[in-house]
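Bit of a strange request maybe. I'm writing a small parser for structure token strings and I need a real example to test against, not something I typed by hand. Could someone generate the tokens for this chain?
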Amino acid sequence: MAAAIAASGCFQVKAWDPTRAIQGGIKALQAVTLSDSQIREYVSQSVAKMDAESKVAHADSPYTIRLNKLTQGLKDVDGVPLNFKVYITDDVNAFACADGSVRVYSGLMDRMTDDEVLGVIGHEIGHVAHKDTKKEMQHAILTNAVLDGVGSTSTVAAALTDSQLGQLSETLVNAKYSQKQESKADDYGYDFLKASGKNPWAMAMAFEQLGKMEAQDPGPIQKMFSSHPTTKKRIEHLEKRLAKDGFQRPVQTTTQTQTSKTTTTKDTTAKSTTSKKTTTSKKKTSSKKKTRK
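Reply from user aminoacidic:
Good idea to test on real output. This should exercise your parser:
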């Protein structure tokens, strides 16, 4: 208990409040003793709130179809089932949670190819595998008193208020990790994609694109990856692994926006061709009628 009180940062020489210190110590104990299942339950509550308050792409949406296709075969991370959804927004972001929820923003998909999106997903799943998201949750409990009154010995997660769920949502979306955590997530993402039958070149390609996007408009990328290691170093590290493992760089796939434009062009061409054939046919018919007369 003494160690927990000290860790809570409430012990001060001046104006020390023993009641407040004990409460801070209890919260510290609650944070460090939460089980993985409790964390997943709290995260699930928070994700459900975010899904309800966000514009989620429906099952027939081109975004959903595209995401399902590129994540085919990605079933679970360390036994935790994965589930994928797209948030319709111009923001550039993606995150994965301890309960297996992976959320990708349409703004990111519009700016990236399938391989690049897959690389970002692989990286985010790495944070789940290394329990970085759990550590962020524990930090939120300590700093924001999110889970006041939750017993450390309870095996069931307590129901949270909207305010508490909102704080957890902020933690999930805006989580900041150390460079060491980011580098480990890169390596895990590489291994995860490789084990899932995907080409891990997706990781390097994602960072290449992020580097280009950052040069053009640094705001959104800095918000998403402000604490990440230097993009150039990450690419170099991944390329060494790729060369060692003998992976070939895949042919670039198109983004959803580019695909739509291509489809439109093809449709237009097809209609034009059909129109020409119809016109030609009419001319031939007219010519035959004149001959009969």
